[in-house]
Each structure stands twice: as C-alpha cells, then as structure tokens.
Amino acid sequence: MTDSLIAGLDLGRLDRIAEHIQRAYLAPGKLAGTLTMVARRGEVVWCKAQGLRDVERNLPIERDTLFRIYSMTKPITSIALMQLYEQGRFLLDDPVSKYIPSWQNLRVYKAGVYPQFVTSACQRPMTVRDLLTHQSGLTYSFMNRSNVDAAYRELKLDGSGGMTLEQLVDELSRLPLEFSPGTAWNYSVATDVCGYLVQLLSGQSLDEYFAEHIFQPLGMQDTFFSVPADKLGRFAACYQYQPGDRFSLQDDPHRSHFSRKPNFLSGGGGLISTIDDYYRFAQALANGGEFEGARIIGRKTLEFMRLNHLPGNQDLPSLARAGSFSETPYDGTGFGLGFSVKQDVARSQTIGSCGEYGWGGMASTNFFIDPVEDLIMIFMTQLIPSSSYAIRQELRAIINGAIVD
C-alpha cells in the first residue's frame, strides 16, 4: 500500500478497488476480467486491468482491450443529436412525427396480443425530448413484461433479424406505445430512434456522423460499430451470467457479429470501444464539452442535458415501469437528456454528489462523472446482464472513500 496522493486521491485507498475485484469477483469466478479507471481534475489517476478478456484462449485484459459498451452508446448518440439542436435543426418539443410522418397516428396499448391490439389515442404527441428521456412510450424486446414487448420480439426489433434502422422506425409506426408519451419512464429503443433522427437531420449515416463530429475531433481511434479485422485480436469475449454465480460464453470475439459490418446502426447499443477512448469522451463532458482543444458540445447545452428532465423533478422509481431497466442504481436518481442524474444522495444509498451523471451497458460496463468533485470513473467488463452484481455501487463507495482533500 502507498500513501501517495494524486489530484486529491489517495492511491493506497484506490488500490482497494483491485483487492475488492480480485477477492469478490475474480477469485470466485463471478467475472472473467475487469478494467477500471479513475480520473480527477483532468488526469487519469488510477487504471488497472485484472483477469482475462478471453477465458477460452487464456488472454489477459489489457489497457487497449476492445469492449462491447452496449448502452454506453446512448450518451454518445444523445450528444450527437444535441449537436444538431445547437444548429437549430429541431426543437425539443417538436413532435417526432414532424420528422417521421408515419408516426403521425401512434396509439397507446389497452388490450390484446399482436397483431390484434386494442388501442386508444395518445394524450399528446410524442416529442423529441420524450425520446431523449425515455418517456416516449416505446419499449425493448428483452423486457419480457408486456404484450407490446412480446410483439417487438416476434418482429425481431432488436436488430437480430437483420433489419436496418429505417426498417425499425417503419415497424414501430404500426405498433402501439406502452403508455401515452410523458406519463411514465421506460427504457427503450428510443435512443435508436434518436440515431435515426441524427441521420435524417445531418444527411449522414450514423457511423459517418459519429466519426466526423465526435470520434475524430476527440481522437477516439478505437470506437466503431464493427471491429476492424486488424484489431480483432484485442476484442474481449462476452459472457452470460449463470445461476450459482458462474458464467458461460455468450459471444466469441472471433465469431461475433460485431466483427461484421452491421445492417442496423444502433445508437442505443451498437458501439465497441476502449477505456481510453471512452475516457476522452467522458473527459470532454467533464470539461464542459471540450477535450484537448476540440469542442463537441456547448457548455450551456451540456448543463441543460444533465438536469433532471422527469416531470415534477421525480426520480426513476416513481416514474419507471416496474422492472424496466438495470443500467444504474436508481433510487434518488432522475434522468436527463441521455444520462441518469443523481438528485438525492441519501436516497440513492450510495456515496456521491448531487448532479453526478452517467450510464451503463448491458454487459455490466459503467461510467459516471461527478461535476462537484471533478471525478470520472469508467468500468469495463463483459457480463450480461448488468443486474448480475452490485459492483457499480461498491466501486462508488471505494472511489469516493479515496477522496482526501
């Protein structure tokens, strides 16, 4: 253990992260491997790779390992859409049907099963802000909770059926919403629709838009929708939780669909990245929208995005459909335009600051930015689902315990 300090963080106390991960997750075989980074005041203070990126081939996790970040794609897509907002291309209270005319007559589910639904009219039209805040009434096929998400599964609206983003938007025009827009919160394909709007408003495909307006300016050379052949050796395997705190192979990196160009460019969950690339994105946000001289978003826009946009300043549990998501600890947490936002530290039962924002991914990756402490944490691993273990809350406890100034 060392007692040295960097940026007000005690490195000896940060070493508890590695000890905890080894003792609680790697030694008992709960996780294959992890990569954890802590940064403060614009510098990476602590970063450690532990365990294996590919158990079957006995390959270690390394600093440049490529990870499926799944829903950590969502903040990138949200920034992309808000870049276009800054150009006056749309307003947040614009009806989505202004840009997707086939959505003019969306209805709300009342009863029945696909394709025989009984529906009613929406109380008001769905807006662009409803998409950004997951208050749209859309859902996800993996929810396994309603007859609407059952229809999503039947139609393969998760990208597995080979459909394009354009086809997804078209299919959604014919399905009912789970609720009238703005009346509840439900994790959904809404951010994929945001990606569609980015394409529509910019005239570029989503991968081209991301590359030109976010990845290249920030120097993110290892973030993409499909892994290039010459980088496949760095791609981690993905694992699935099994009862009894074990895991099994879910996606072999050498046979992964992520090694092929996708039909479906998913702004909701399609990106592969490295911890250093994602740090460049997160540090740009922590800096108010700029990193190493490249500005991707205005300071005031970002401040607006990380406000709680839920009605009446409610938190997620008071507005969310039961069992609707697990990408973040959510008591005392609201939602902004693309991020969760901590509103009430005591209610969250996890150390942090009011205004802390971030998100996670289906394979248990997670990041947060604490603007009060000027602190960033990025955690990479590959275990589905993200609700398998409470490691995100444990990391927050250890990292905040290392702040000594």
Would you mind describing this structure in some detail?
It comes from Halopseudomonas phragmitis. This is Serine hydrolase. It holds the Pfam family Beta-lactamase. By secondary structure, the protein is α+β, with helices and mostly antiparallel strands. The chain folds into 2 domains: 275 residues, Beta-lactamase (3-Layer(aba) Sandwich), CATH 3.40.710.10; 108 residues, no CATH class. Helices cover 28% and strands 20% of the residues. It contains 12 helices and 19 strands. The strands form 6 sheets. The protein has an 8-stranded antiparallel β-sheet with strand order 5-4-3-18-17-16-15-14, sandwiched between helices. Strands 10-9-19 form a 3-stranded mixed β-sheet, with no helix packed on it. It has a two-stranded antiparallel ribbon with strand order 1-2. Strand 3 and strand 4 form a beta hairpin. Helix 2 packs parallel to helix 6. It is globular, with a radius of gyration of 20 Å.
Please describe the structure with a list of short key phrases separated by commas or semicolons:
single chain; 405 residues; 8-stranded antiparallel β-sheet; 12 helices; 19 strands; 20% strand; Serine hydrolase; hydrolase activity; Beta-lactam/transpept-like; Diverse_Enzym_Activities; hydrolase
